[in-house]
């Protein structure tokens, strides 16, 4: 199985002078935390890192030979995923048997338990997502007005890794790329939309597996890191 750490975004919402995945958490960059987690995980044979153009050399210096390649990201997240898929296809990996774990570099506290669960689930299924049940009531809003309240017990919040057979995610993104009216924000959504006959199974995530989007998230991650290893 191949883990792809997706750090190709600019992190504009964070507001830093550099991509947020290069910010420091507990003495290491977010990218280093993620790469280390997957490199240490049993069942993960290889790790790729996707970075914004112009940051490949810095990323390579940070992670050294812990990754097999640093790939240039694209304009959007889906572009970055497609670049990684193209790299794997060019490497000649068998699409029907190769598993791909796609993980956001902005989630530096992913645990070995989550990765192990994903590896096991992907050995049985073609598509796997990590998610946690929502504790909040979620509303659908239109023009600033609540229009619908879905049953909370049916709702979960997506995390990463999101994991797929290479042939499945490659085909889903091929179809998405041909649809100019759709801008994906995650890969499970791409599979659900374009390959509806492929079930996306759920692996339990963790409230510690937070995504660093805003400066306050980094402060929370620091507290979680100091509290001990993620479970």
Quick summary:
With 231 residues, the chain is of the alpha/beta class. 32% of the residues lie in helices and 23% in strands.
> What CATH architecture do you see?
Alpha-Beta Complex
Strand line-up across the major sheet: 5-4-1-6-10-7-11
Please mark out the parts with pLDDT under 50 across 5 or more consecutive residues, or reply none. Answer: none
Q: What count of structural domains? A: 1
Radius of gyration, in Å, reads 17 Å
CATH topology: Spore Coat Polysaccharide Biosynthesis Protein SpsA, Chain A
The protein's oligomeric status is: single chain
| Structural class by sheet pairing and helices | alpha/beta
CATH level 1 name: Alpha Beta
Could you characterize the architecture of this molecule?
With 231 residues, the protein is of the alpha/beta class. It has one domain: Spore Coat Polysaccharide Biosynthesis Protein SpsA, Chain A (Alpha-Beta Complex), CATH 3.90.550. The radius of gyration is 17 Å and the shape is globular. The two termini are 22 Å apart.
Chain-wise SSE layout:
Elements: E1 2-6, E2 24-25, E3 28-29, H1 30-39, E4 46-51, H2 56-63, E5 69-72, H3 77-90, E6 99-104, H4 112-122, E7 127-133, E8 140-142, E9 145-148, E10 156-165, H5 166-177, H6 187-194, E11 201-204, H7 215-226
Parallel strand pairs: 1-4, 1-6, 4-5, 7-11
Antiparallel strand pairs: 2-3, 6-10, 7-10, 8-9
Helix pairs in contact: 3-5, 5-6
Features:
231 residues, Spore Coat Polysaccharide Biosynthesis Protein SpsA, Chain A, 7 helices, 32% helix, globular
């Amino acid at each position: 199985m191949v883990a792809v750490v997706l750090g190709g975004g600019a992190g504009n919402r964070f507001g830093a002078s550099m991509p947020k995945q290069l910010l420091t958490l507990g003495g290491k960059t977010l990218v280093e935390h993620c790469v280390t987690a997957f490199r240490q995980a049993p069942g993960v044979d290889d790790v790729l890192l996707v970075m914004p153009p112009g940051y490949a050399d810095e990323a390579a210096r940070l992670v050294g030979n812990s990754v097999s390649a640093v790939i240039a990201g694209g304009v959007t997240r889906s572009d970055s995923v497609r670049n990684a898929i193209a790299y794997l296809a060019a490497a000649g990996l068998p699409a029907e048997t190769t598993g791909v774990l796609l993980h956001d570099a902005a989630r530096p506290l992913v645990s070995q338990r989550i990765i192990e669960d994903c590896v096991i689930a992907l050995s049985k299924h073609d598509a796997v997502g990590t998610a946690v049940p929502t504790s909040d009531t979620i509303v659908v809003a239109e023009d600033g007005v609540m229009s619908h309240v879905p049953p909370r017990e049916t709702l979960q919040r997506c995390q990463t890794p999101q994991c797929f057979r290479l042939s499945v995610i490659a085909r889903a993104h091929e179809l998405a790329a041909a649809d100019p009216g759709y801008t994906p924000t995650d890969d499970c959504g791409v599979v659900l939309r374009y390959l509806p006959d492929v079930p996306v199974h759920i692996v339990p995530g963790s409230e510690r597996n937070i995504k660093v989007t805003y400066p306050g998230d980094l402060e929370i991650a620091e507290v979680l890191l100091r509290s001990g290893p993620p479970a």
